[in-house]
Amino acid sequence: MKMVKGRSIGTVQETILQNELNRIRETYSFRLGLLLTEAFVRRPWKIPLLPFLFLKMNIDFIRSAKHRRGSFEGSTFGFDENCLLIMTTSEGGVSATERAISIAKSWITNPQRRIVVVSTNEHLNSMKISGVSLYHIPDPKAHREISTSEWNETCANVVRGAIETHRPIAFIFQGTYPYRGVLNAIGISPGLNSTWLRPENINLKLVQKGEGVFTRILSFEELTEEEDATISTITSAERTTAASNLVLVGTGYGQHHQRDRLPKQLNRALIQNTLHRFVFPKNADTGNLSRVKFDHWDTIIGHSEFNSLCAAITRDDLHLVKALRRQGVPTLCLIDNQTGLATLRKLQRIAEAGGLFITNIEDNAEFNLYHHALLDQAWNDSIRSNRSIGPTDDWGRLIEKCLAREV
Length: 407
What we know:
Blueprint: E1 2-4, E2 7-9, H1 12-25, H2 28-42, H3 50-74, E3 80-88, H4 93-107, E4 114-119, E5 132-136, H5 148-166, E6 168-174, H6 180-187, E7 194-198, H7 204-211, E8 216-219, E9 230-233, E10 246-250, H8 264-272, E11 277-281, E12 294-297, E13 311-314, H9 318-326, E14 331-335, H10 341-352, E15 356-360, H11 364-374, H12 377-384, E16 386-389, H13 395-403
Parallel strand pairs: 3-4, 3-6, 4-5, 6-7, 7-8, 10-11, 10-13, 11-12, 13-14, 14-15
Antiparallel strand pairs: 1-2, 9-16
Helix pairs in contact: 2-3, 4-13, 5-6, 9-10
């Protein structure tokens, strides 16, 4: 048990049990049973008064129900309108980290605002932004020695501790699925405005599981307006000198490093390539490449050499693809059967403006064709002279949605 600003806080499990006990005590059946026991067992002299006591019990029950409903709707322990809480998970890889950074930078527009980040990404060291507080939770994929129940209890206690300490105006959870610990922490935080920011193509049962807990559920794809990308010539003042041989291999950008596997045909193509040097997201799988041929970057979009890439090969991460095309970087996007329809349509819109190839990872012939074209010097130079000016990820609009009290 600990104290936070005058309030006594136990573990989440203790709070859940206490809340359940309070709920049972507030039920009509419990009150009726208590009244009958009191009259017929403990104090028989109350039997003649039973009709009047029964009427009083009903009046008290109706009044208390209205009071509980008003207390819940009027909320609670006083939220800080300048504080935002984000939880990002290791399942989303570097992509999740950079989305959190983008949201943080969009929120902290004046010195009074601050943001709290809870993360299971133990390698997250790129959130060193003024006004950001960072809480680490052990990565459940990397620490198999911790049981699921123990980990969820730890997660719930950390998240609830952050909520009680910082009193955020809203909580954004971005990940593939909500942990039980997260659901428990939200469930005992009445009035908390919570949003689940999820990938497009996930199991419907997981979405339904979160619908009764989160205030709203949004997909990453909802961040982009339905507008066509256009071509704009990069001026001489804006143009960067492309590294003659620096290629981003971002197929592990949105993957947990233990689940990331470099596609076999891409692995073969990179091994045979003697003209370029490759960069990967931190801890991404590098296949059978010689160590002298690649580097790892902690961040991708925020890296100092991002604008100097001569080409990029990625998965279907819209955030990364749009950032690459806005810098005029020729890009090959590898999709598969898990790519959502909305994501594919938006990728195709970007591709219409040029500079982006899209191919299924299983189509070897098309992959080889696009891979060779991507690294062709003449075509590459032509594409780099233009950039795709289209819809960007509107993080400010996302935050407005998350702050809305009515869905």
